[in-house]
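Data card: per-record layout.
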Amino acid sequence: MRVLSVAKPFRLFSRWVTGSSSANSESVESGVMYDRTLLWLAIGLAIVGFVMVTSASMPVAQRYTDDPFYFAKRDAIYIGLALVCSFVTLRIPLEKWQRYSWMFLLAIIVMLSVVLVVGSSVNGASRWISLGPVNIQPAEFSKLALFVYLASYLVRKIDEVRNNFWGFLKPLGVMFMLALLLLAQPDLGTVVVLFVTTLGVLFLAGAKLWQFLALIGVGVSAVALLIIAEPYRMRRITSFWDPWADPFGAGYQLTQSLMAFGRGELWGQGLGNSVQKLEYLPEAHTDFIFAIIGEELGYIGVVLVLLMVFFVAFRAMLIGRRALEAGQRFAGFLACEIGLWFSFQTLVNVGAAAGILPTKGLTLPLISYGGSSLLIMSTALVLLLRIDYETRLANSQAHVRGSR
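The structure for this 404-residue chain is written out next.
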């Protein structure tokens, strides 16, 4: 009886996703119809994020708003909105995402254009659209929009991508159009995420190797030119090479981040006991929150967080493989894109905080403070749950037909 009582909420969740109590739904409820491991990992990362945002943001919130929990309250509101969006996303069949992918992409292109005209400027970058107390960052939504469209394109043009160079270049042309709008903000970090994830999924789709080598060469050259063209980007590169050469200038943020990791040692200084968050480390609750995790929770905390992120990305790729094996190409490609996106963005954020990569303004998924990032990342992970559910449902139905 106890086992049944524990399993019942999960069965109700599975039934709620389908929106019906049909015979097919009833026939598969004896098994688990979604990835519970992925769900608990996502919830765990969100909880870690809320706790660390609260801890890291208290000094700066106290200074600017006289309310030490200002950012914590806003983060709680964003988590609530993310839950609402997640429940809505769970009810949307993948077929609708595929059918209206071009409309989603078009809407994001309009938003990226609007932000250049009426966007709010922060630190010299116009990336936010203010809607009262809420700021929307279209660049975050552009990631999911492009990946949904790309998955839809691969379903329709998979043979062309594999056998025709023009078919390989078409999705890159769409990405290039988004890149131009993003670079006008400017936002090179998002462009790099779009480029790497697009290349990754095209490789998984079976495009020819020489096309990748040529495109990677072009991409690296383009990024190098973009870095050279902007003095602030050059300063980031030089400070990344040797931050201690100018510890109070271009290398200040990275040196403070490295100090945070150094103070953390094995077990950390304890939750709330960070010194670097006392306005020594800029953006401690956003781009450099991983350094605060290292200082307060130590090496053990860093490893646990990275393991959680790794397993989320691993489950995403596993869900994608199962969907492709079941013949659900749109679901499979989209799941793989989400896994690549999640893991690469984490790599860039962690690498920047640890001095392994140049500093880029990319959030740590589900952990860093930022409403748009939290909303879009939670939506992407819920899409994975929907993909997994539909794949398991299709396999179950195929098994039932085969047994007859």
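Known properties of this structure: Confidence is low (pLDDT under 50) at residues 1-10, 16-30. The CA atoms of residues 139 and 330 lie 23 Å apart.

See the next section for split statistics.
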